Amino acid sequence: MAALFFLGLTATAAHVSPRGALLRSRRVRSFPALSSVPSDAPPSKSLKAMTMFSNTYAKNTGTFFCSDPGIAAVVIKGLAEHKDQLGAPLCPCRHYDDKAAEAKDGFWNCPCTPMRERHECHCMLFLKPDDEFAGDRQDISLEEVAQLIAAMP
Ligand code: SF4
Question: The whole model's pTM is what?
């Protein structure tokens, strides 16, 4: 769970690299965008949809979730929240001045253009097999996502 640190930073600062933050620190921080969601709330339709999407997309692209499953859980949750709020799964790891405009533009809707073109996921949801943070999983259940989110500080 320690690797969740980066999401607390990237929710407010677009220039912060998740990978750099991971390398610099193992401290845990909460993800501000998630803090308003009650931990005992039932999983939403969007959370289920984004979990299914992530599992399928990882397999289709030959990428893997981070060895810390909390990373996948919190990114999936962020995508689901944006899907609910904006109608599109805008990347949750960036700062936007105008989220609605960004969602309409589509460049950062998951899978974003850098991921589709170069397999670059700065959220570390979809990692190349040789990435130092890549785990061996391409599958996470909705229940595990919900449990990991509920356990977050
Ligand atoms: S693929 Fe792109 S939009 Fe999706 S989580 Fe990764 S960086 Fe964000």
Answer: 0.81
Distances (CA, A) of 152 to 27, 30, 63, 80, 129: 13, 7, 25, 17, 27
- pLDDT more than 70, % of the chain: 73
**What is the C-alpha to C-alpha distance for residues 128 and 24, in angstroms, rounded to an integer?**
21
Which of these is catalytic: 66, 91, 93, 123? 93
- Ramachandran assignment for 126, one of left (phi > 0), alpha (psi -120 to 50 degrees), beta (any other): beta
Separation of 114 CA from ligand 1 center, angstroms?
8
User: pLDDT higher for 35 or 147?
Assistant: 147
pLDDT of residue 43: 78
Using a 6 Å cutoff on CB, does residue 91 contact ligand 1?
A: yes
The reply to whether ligand 1 has any atom less than 6 angstroms from the CB of 78 is no
Mean pLDDT of 20-49: 58
Whether 123 is a known active-site residue: answer no
Q: For residue 130, how far is the Cα from the chain centroid?
A: 19
Our answer on whether the CB atom of 110 is closer than 6 Å to any ligand 1 atom is: yes
- The CB of 126 under 6 Å from ligand 1? The reply is yes
